[in-house]
Q: What sequence folds into this?
């Protein structure tokens, strides 16, 4: 991914997914998550590209990983503009050592 908002291309998520699917020799994946984000200003363009991924049949649904609650809600709202639901939010707290320790038996 690009290291600054200035280097971000609006279609980057779709481009990266197409490249991944080609490498895996498949036409579609069940779910596609974007990990973190470059800058809050990039959320609308990422949402558009994720919506394009669903509309073009590259994935069945989309989600985010390691977004803050506010940014996740913004992504949900942006995707809704295209009729695409935000399927999941993989929060970093779920991967923390504290969480793992509390629930190990």
A:
């Amino acid at each position: 991914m690009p290291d600054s908002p200035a280097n971000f291309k609006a279609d980057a998520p779709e481009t990266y997914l197409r490249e991944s699917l080609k490498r895996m020799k498949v036409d579609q994946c069940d779910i596609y998550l974007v990990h973190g984000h470059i800058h809050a200003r990039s959320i609308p363009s990422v949402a558009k590209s994720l919506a394009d991924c669903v509309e073009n049949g590259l994935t069945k649904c989309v989600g985010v990983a390691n977004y803050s609650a506010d940014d996740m809600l913004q992504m949900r709202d942006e995707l809704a503009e295209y009729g695409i639901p935000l399927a999941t939010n993989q929060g970093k707290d779920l991967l923390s050592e504290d969480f793992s320790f509390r629930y190990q038996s």
User: Anything to note?
Assistant: Strands lie at 29-35, 59-65, 86-90. The radius of gyration is 15 Å. Residues 11 and 58 are 14 Å apart (CA to CA). The chain has one domain: 5-102.
